[in-house]
Amino acid sequence: MARRERYQNRIELLQGTLDMLVLRTLQWGPQHGHGIGTAISSSSQDVLQIDHGSLYPALHRLERQGWIEAEWKLTENKQRAKYYRLTRTGKKQLLAAESKWNRLIEAIARVMQPAKS
Predict the structure, then answer these.
(1) Residue 116 and residue 95 in contact, taking contact as beta carbons nearer than 8 Å
(2) Which residue of 3, 31, 102, 105 has the fewest CB atoms within a 10 Å radius of its CB?
């Protein structure tokens, strides 16, 4: 897919959605930043492409909030990378975010497909 076409088909995430996706991805275990972006892309069948300019500020913000923790490790390729993991507080935040997200989806669905009279 051409770069221009991919940009035109890009879906903008609602504020807070990226944080929820990162927390969800880390629920399956520690991961480095590039791996988190790849997992989100893969899970969404490449609909969601998270660029580093959005991902790394989100990771730093989540770390400051205490929802994730990081430590330096070697990757499979013997490169040093920061690996992030979900904290207990992060797990609670993920549950709250998922609950809010589900309410939002239901509300949007009601507006987009109103009941027939």
Answers:
(1) no
(2) 3
pLDDT of 114: 76
pLDDT in tens, 46-98: 999 899 999 999 999 999 999 999 999 998 889 999 999 999 999 999 999 99
How far is it, in rounded angstroms, from Cα 53 to Cα 23?
Answer: 18
3-state secondary structure of 92: helix
Alpha-carbon torsion, ordered 95, 23, 15, 5, to 10 deg? -130
> What domains, with CATH codes, occur in the chain?
20-111 (1.10.10.10)
Give the C-alpha separation, 80 to 97, whole Å. 31
